[in-house]
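User: Reviewer 2 asked us to show a designed sequence for the structure in our supplementary figure. I'm pasting the structure tokens here. Could you produce the per-position amino acids so we can include them in the response letter?
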């Protein structure tokens, strides 16, 4: 028997957006979600591609990539994947930056055998050009996809941890250092807002109806 939370209703989303008391004024939001909610499929947790196969794709996609501090990028998706509470969240966590940071596309991942429930969440977690950060995070919430919401929070928690380490160890002296500090502070402020926004949305989501499938 499989238990999972259903996607958020339009009514619930609307209530959330009208009562987001902790949301920063930096990113004022509209009062309703314009995009249709994506229903969770019955096989939401029935995935078949192995974790090892997913890891191979992740390592390939991040080969040679560096983070903002010039360090290898691969530890970040590994940490996000390991933070997942089930196999689906782990797979999505490992792959969450693949489409955004490499030439690999959703179609490529599908051709290699990645399951549709994983692809749906990875697609939502891909921040594409032309989309503001507020729109990007809001789209994840409006989708009603709980896996994408939880993995995005794991991503943000890991980014917050990396930012704290950067503040502790980096030298921000000089003009270049001041510019880097300003950039980092802006990123941290944005991430802090997104954490509060998603945490509030998940509190409301997990009060919803539970559907049982035999």
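Assistant: Here is a per-position design you can include in the supplement:
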């Amino acid at each position: 028997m499989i238990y999972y939370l259903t996607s958020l209703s339009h009514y619930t989303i609307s209530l959330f957006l009208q009562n987001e008391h902790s949301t920063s004024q930096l990113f004022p939001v509209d009062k309703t979600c314009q995009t249709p909610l994506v229903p969770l499929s019955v096989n939401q947790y029935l995935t078949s591609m192995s974790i090892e196969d997913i890891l191979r794709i992740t390592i390939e996609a991040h080969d040679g990539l560096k983070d903002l501090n010039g360090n290898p990028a691969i530890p970040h998706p590994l940490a996000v994947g390991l933070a997942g509470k089930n196999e689906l969240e782990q797979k999505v966590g490992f792959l969450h930056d693949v489409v955004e940071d490499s030439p690999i596309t959703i179609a490529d991942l599908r051709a290699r055998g990645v399951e549709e429930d994983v692809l749906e969440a990875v697609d939502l977690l891909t921040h594409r050009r032309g989309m503001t950060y507020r729109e990007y995070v809001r789209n994840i919430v409006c989708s009603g996809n709980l896996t994408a919401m939880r993995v995005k929070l794991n991503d943000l928690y890991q980014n917050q941890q990396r930012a704290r380490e950067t503040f502790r160890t980096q030298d921000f002296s000089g003009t270049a250092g001041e510019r880097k500090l300003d950039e980092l502070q802006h990123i941290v402020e944005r991430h802090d807002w997104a954490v509060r926004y998603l945490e509030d949305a998940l509190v409301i989501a997990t009060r919803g109806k539970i559907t049982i499938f035999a």
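For the response letter, you might also mention the following. The chain has one domain: 2-21+33-213. The radius of gyration is 18 Å.
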